[in-house]
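User: Can you help me understand a structure? I only have the sequence.
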Amino acid sequence: MGRKIRFAAILAALCVIALGCSQANMHARNDMHAGKRALDDGDFVVAEELFSRAAQLEPSAAVYVFAATAAYNANDLQHAAGFIDAASKFKGNSDVYPRILAYKALIRFRQGRHAEAMDAINAFLAIGASYYPLRNAGIVRRMTAASPIDLVYLQALLEYDVRHYESDIVQWRSEGTGYFSYKWGTPTIRTLPEW
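Assistant: Let's start by predicting it. Here is the structure, written out as tokens:
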């Protein structure tokens, strides 16, 4: 009888832990999606708060880079730099890697850290040379070779390419079609990216 009670207690504790984790995961995903809507609507301060809250619940490269995107657009350069550094610490091939490089470059240019910004730009352009066609690669290359750099225009160029890349990733992961299906075939499991 004692073993059954201990087993039931352990099982109940595991259920409580799992429920708590799933609720945190659900809240983080809700904050992430609400943050994306706020970002798309141009409400950058609210988006930054939502992404920051999601990062506290479930840290990931995606949530940190979207927080950096919101903070950068809200002219909160200090938080944008912290968020982009946090996003950069996640290892592995991430679906948000182009966004990390784009916003790392923009943030470093604004911080006056030109060499680091150019390293990020060169890594971003390497994506276009290696596995995804970036429509604005030539313009970005010429623009960053000259001085001074128009950061508003550069952001528009980078954001355009990043959004197309992310859209193609979503299409491939969810429907198994589009650019990446021709390159890599149909994904074995169809899912939506974490953003």
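Now, to help you interpret it: Confidence is low (pLDDT under 50) at residues 11-21. The radius of gyration is 20 Å. Let me know which part you'd like to focus on.
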